[in-house]
Amino acid sequence: MRIYVSLSFLLIIAALWYGTTGCANVGSPTGGSKDTIPPQLLTSLPLSGSVNYKQGIIRMEFSEAVVLKNLQSQLIISPRTSVPYKTRVNRNVVELRFDKPFADSTTYTFNFRDGIVDITEGNPVPNLYLAFSTGSYLDSLRLQGNVQRALTNAAADGATVAIYDARDTLNIFSDKPLYFTKTDKEGNYEIRNLKRGRYLVYAFNDKNNNLTLQSKDEAYGFWPDTLQLQASQDSINISTFRANADVPAITNARPTTAGYYEVTFNKSMQNYRLQLNTGDSIASNFIEEQKKIRIYPFALQDSLGATLLAWDSLQQQLEQQIMIRFEPGRRKREALVTTSVLPKANTALSRTVTFELTFNKPIASLRLDSIRLVYDSITFQGFAPADVRWNERRDKLRLQKTLQPPRRAVQPPSATADAQTLARQGSEGAGQNARLLIPKGSIQSVESDTLDNQEVSYKIAQESQTGIISGTIQSAETNFILQLVRANNFEVVAEQYNARSYTFRFVEAGEYRLRIIRDLNNNGRWDAGNIRKLQAPEPVYVYPDPISIKAQGDPASGNSAVKAVYKWRSAVDK
């Protein structure tokens, strides 16, 4: 039975999305005669909104007895202060005593979040927030927005939103922010009682709670400009992502005991160019997750100078002169192997497929006539030169082919068989499997060793057992990537470029989402921008509703259609 899912997509180009903001709802325990009424603040010293308050004491009286619950981590004081304080609780009175006076002519805010709860049931005091000024004026501007994960559009719960004075030399990598807060479960945040000024706004997953960004391990995002805060803002929305922003550096460059010359970086790099001073070419490639370049032996009597230009995923560049020299190898070299084969074994292949083989060293020669796609004992396809694509290093081979499996014998018509079913029987391959065969000796590396026999087995996708997702995109944008991703982990299943009308065929049973990337630089991939230059990442939009493809034989399967229109708006459209 054919499963058909149709989706209509209306896309209005946007640079921002509009997140709703608001206070977090405080849940209450349920059941029995439990106390579900939270404590209430009766009075405080100072009163919220006070000015000219000089004392280093915060005292609060509540409607019932309370206790502190992780106050050190729950309490957010802005501007951030390193002055230590002591706490004291006497039944329904909480007191904070600071060791030093507050700064002069400064508005302070105390957001206690869930740090003070009643003594019986642990109900937190709702919306406990105090603001006062040590001067004659209370700053009153607000900053609100939403933080979400860039590639999934999911709310970034518990992210730290950090604000720096743009006039300072402080930075998020080494210095703590002037103001900060945490997002709620919906990714919303709010910072109140700010003064007018120019700010830099960041959001990051502060895993080690040190209020600085370790971009190697922590997701982050940023507002892509200096924020001129002259009035309250309610849509300062930020997308977070993982991208190591460390400045690229070479940590080691030396000959190895296996006879190579290797250059090691402090992080994974995206690409490089190696130019010998003589103008000759030399074999090299990335190894170890692209943290290292291996240069293969070259006929040298002495060292040879070269210029190495390398860059990371943020397009941060490193250019350095190196002196390449080789020493006699004392250690056995690695054999030629594939480090990756895509599609993975046992994947269901659609009618047009691209096989991608990655090797551990550059390839010198390929005997294409020996590589075959085998369907059964008598049916196979070969590959032509037009089917072959190499990357620049010749350590990645792509073979593209339109499958031509043997046709299935048409079954005699039955009372229940319709014409469409019979036609499909004749068009689908009789063999349900295919094997990619690469005999030993077909592929030879720059070190003259050959690849062992390779055999990868696949299934052939059948229309009668899979679904179709199709639709249209209405947009003035010229460059975009439409991706079909798995709903549970956002693994990319298929993608199309600049497809106004799109069709994804042979979609296996499961839950899927559609994702659009605005490919602003038309390089065929998503780019994270550059936090050091405040260059924004490319916008990503995820259709909010999952698309379900049912397996053949599932009672819920059948001819179904999902039609939806989704519109994005931004400030530039107003």
Automatic annotation (TrEMBL):
Superkingdom of origin: Bacteria
Molecular function via GO: carbohydrate binding
Claim: Ligase is one of the keywords in the record: no
Organism field: Cesiribacter andamanensis AMV16
PROSITE patterns, alphabetized: PROKAR_LIPOPROTEIN
Record keywords, A-Z: Signal
Protein name: SbsA Ig-like domain-containing protein
InterPro entries per the UniProt record, alphabetical: Carb-bd-like_fold (IPR013784), Ig-like_fold (IPR013783), SbsA_Ig (IPR032812)
Oxidoreductase found in the keyword field: no
Domain SbsA Ig-like: 35-134
Gene3D superfamilies xref list: Immunoglobulins
